[in-house]
């Protein structure tokens, strides 16, 4: 791997207590290019622009997908990733569906570990703090033909993160728009899925909702996901979540919540979650909680659900009563090395880059 | 508009008789950037790379859409666009669905006319020849948040084109994959739609088919489109084509074929095209032709349809017997100024750029 260190690191000007999420980038990025059927030399270099023309296939035909993961710093300044192998295997489920080349495991994992190790000073510490890491692969060939590209760039960029969406939010159960088709790409972290969700989300925002609960495109009878998160419903003391399919992203947080709930002895039912059943549970007082889960926010608690012309206001639970918040704590304690890790989910990023390498 | 002419035009080295479509770009490109809620100064500049980091929202979240249109040169070297207003209005249907800013008409049309005028020498002349023009808009903000971008680039690039897909092709009627969801973005020329189609197309290719006839994602009972084209079916002497919807792109060629067919007195039925009815027509000998239409190839004639475990081999018609080929000729004669233009579809690109401007 080529490591080209930044001549002008910005870290000394970076205020770990006060920064804006998402557009403050760590000093370096990792890139590796694919051409002529093979991957080239992986490289770490200063974060910054690369030359692409507007004919780049990635923006014309959307052959692009990504991952979202986090690094956490504990009290002793040790740095941990969370289940990175899950993101590795998922990005290749995405590339496969988008007819892009498979990313080799060593390129993904070595790139990730080396980049995070090198820029470990950028990782903020403390409650809810982390480094948000974005592996992304996109087609770079410059050709105006709607066909599979022959050139790609795999990159990893990262931005310091605070948890956001802390307040419970109001969500709209979609009765017109959808995010995925049967036989489509909903299960992939395909770039185009996100753009497709922005306009329906904007419309929901205008109606006073923060997010959309996506439902099936056939008759809007079943929950699929919420915003860019997987969704959980608690009726009495049982948790329900849709089973994964070609329309639903197989979330790492979802999987972790299921395992943590089972560990707590909470009953989890994985299967169809019918809108009608959720509304009925609301009406008979058994609907306790509905929430979304994902790497970015861990848990987004819903305070109300908009359904057709109704607004279903959910009960307010204490942190202890709430399954959503109890499981969130279980998870973040493991992520940040505050608790035992019975599942072997934490992945320590070793210090290998010497100060003056 | 700023016009920055290329200091090293490549046109003198360009062989109009022998070039590869899609990756030979004309000397210039048009760009206009959007920021802070408004469009900046439009600019024509040499075709080439622009700096973007891998955090560019266009590749991360797929906020990107495009148009495809052509310029034709007639015997007298006059240059014509074909129904450019259709592409203008369609790109804004796409931007609207993808929560992108509307492109103002003067930016689109002036950019287009000035670029084509300036690089008119790049347009090849003769049967099937044209300049393929790609207006494209994509999100350029560098932020790792799945939300609407605040910055965009609208660009126009172009490549000389020969007609391709000349031979009749074999297509597979999809019984598993789909390209669009109800309430989704199928009607938009959204970048992500194309990437999503590559893998199912590759699988079809491996089975010996050149393209996929997309069917509805619910039960694969209805024709939607074929490859990146709209689809027509002829049973006896009546033409059928699916009605446009939120799943079907409203093609300029489709609309032109409908009008030209009506002008010829051919009956056109716009509505549901059921797979079952097509197969039944094949079985009773009334299925005459099935073909795709689009700007790139005008008409792609299908020689056979793969349906489940059957291969339906279509009759071979002469050019005169074929509605597909008769209508193609009607259309290309108008496009290339070989015939009257009763519909007012041709749009002449005036010579305005002086040699040494
Ligand atoms: C559409 C969608 N669903 C669900 C999730 C949650 O997945 P994860 O828990 O792996 O972050 C994400 C990503 O964050 C997503 O983009
Ligand atoms: C999905 C799709 N359908 C149909 C068409 C045909 O549209 P048009 O005739 O405007 O080129 C296109 C574009 O060429 C397309 O991308």
Automatic annotation (TrEMBL), chains A, B:
Signal peptide: none
Single annotated GO MF: L-valine-2-oxoglutarate transaminase activity
Modified residues (N6-(pyridoxal phosphate)lysine): 189
SUPFAM superfamilies in the record: D-aminoacid aminotransferase-like PLP-dependent enzymes
Entries under PROSITE patterns matching the protein: AA_TRANSFER_CLASS_4
Cofactors (names): pyridoxal 5'-phosphate
Family annotation (InterPro entries): Aminotrans_IV, Aminotrans_IV_CS, Aminotransferase-like, B_amino_transII, BCAT-like_C, BCAT-like_N, BCAT_family
Origin: domain of life: Bacteria
Stretches that traverse the bilayer: none
Annotated catalysed reactions: L-leucine + 2-oxoglutarate = 4-methyl-2-oxopentanoate + L-glutamate; L-isoleucine + 2-oxoglutarate = (S)-3-methyl-2-oxopentanoate + L-glutamate; L-valine + 2-oxoglutarate = 3-methyl-2-oxobutanoate + L-glutamate
Keyword presence, Amino-acid biosynthesis: yes
Keyword Amino-acid biosynthesis: yes
UniProt keyword annotations, A-Z: Amino-acid biosynthesis, Aminotransferase, Branched-chain amino acid biosynthesis, Pyridoxal phosphate, Transferase
GO BP terms: isoleucine biosynthetic process; L-leucine biosynthetic process; L-valine biosynthetic process
Cited Pfam families: Aminotran_4
E.C. number: 2.6.1.42
Database matches in Gene3D superfamilies: 3.30.470.10, D-amino Acid Aminotransferase, subunit A, domain 2
Family per record: Belongs to the class-IV pyridoxal-phosphate-dependent aminotransferase family.
Protein name: Branched-chain-amino-acid aminotransferase
Species this protein is from: Halpernia humi
Lineage: Bacteria, Pseudomonadati, Bacteroidota, Flavobacteriia, Flavobacteriales
């Amino acid at each position: 791997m080529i490591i080209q260190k930044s001549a002008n690191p910005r870290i000394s000007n970076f205020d770990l207590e006060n920064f804006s999420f998402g557009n403050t980038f760590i000093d370096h990025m990792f890139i590796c290019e694919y051409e002529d059927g093979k991957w080239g030399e992986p490289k770490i270099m200063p974060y910054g622009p690369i030359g692409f023309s507007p004919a780049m296939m990635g923006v014309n035909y959307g052959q692009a997908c990504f991952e979202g993961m986090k690094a956490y710093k504990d009290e002793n300044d040790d740095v941990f990733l969370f289940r990175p192998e899950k993101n590795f295997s998922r990005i290749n489920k995405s590339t496969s569906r988008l007819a892009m080349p498979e990313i080799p495991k060593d390129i993904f994992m070595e790139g990730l570990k080396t980049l995070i190790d090198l820029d470990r000073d950028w990782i903020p510490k403390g409650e809810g703090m982390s480094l948000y890491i974005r592996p992304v692969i996109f087609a770079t060939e410059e050709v105006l033909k709607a066909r599979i590209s022959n050139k790609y760039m795999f990159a990893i960029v990262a931005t310091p993160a605070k948890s956001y969406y802390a307040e419970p939010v109001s969500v709209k159960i979609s009765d017109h728009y959808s995010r995925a088709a049967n036989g489509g790409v909903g299960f992939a972290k395909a770039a185009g899925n996100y753009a497709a969700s922005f306009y329906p989300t904007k419309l929901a925002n205008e109606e006073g909702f923060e997010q959309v609960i996506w439902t099936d495109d056939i008759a809007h009878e079943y929950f699929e996901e919420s915003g860019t998160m997987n969704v959980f419903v608690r009726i009495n003391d049982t948790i329900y979540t849709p089973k994964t399919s070609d329309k639903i992203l197989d979330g790492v947080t979802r999987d972790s919540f299921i395992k943590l709930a089972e560990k707590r002895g909470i009953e989890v039912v994985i299967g169809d979650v019918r809108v009608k059943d959720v509304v009925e549970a609301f009406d008979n007082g058994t609907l306790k909680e509905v929430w979304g889960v994902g790497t970015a926010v861990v848990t987004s608690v819903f305070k109300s659900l908009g359904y057709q012309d109704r607004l279903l206001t959910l009960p307010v639970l204490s942190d202890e009563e709430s399954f959503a918040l109890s499981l969130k704590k279980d998870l973040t304690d493991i992520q940040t090395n505050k608790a035992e890790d019975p599942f072997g989910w934490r992945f320590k990023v070793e210090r290998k880059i010497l100060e003056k390498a």
